[in-house]
Amino acid sequence: MPVDATGPAWDLLLVLFGLPPAEGDLCVGDLAIRAEIPRTTTVRWLRELHRHGFVTLSSNKRDKRAVSVKLTPAGQRAMEACFASAGLKVG
Question: Domain named HTH marR-type: which ranges (predicted)?
Fold first, then answer.
């Protein structure tokens, strides 16, 4: 079953896709702020995106209480495919 990548899911994926390679990942709170989505909504959608293999969720190296989020290679490819299907080149 495909994931609903509209609304908050799209906003979260777009923020993660736009991160500079040196930054790599964000903690959930920072991602919620950048995507302008309430934290509870962010957490709910991240669980769904993680279940479908688009993001990884791991302990934050700097703050063990926080969770870091990163696009998986599959998530990266999916985002690139979305832009390519719209005729937009990224990268």
Answer: 1-91
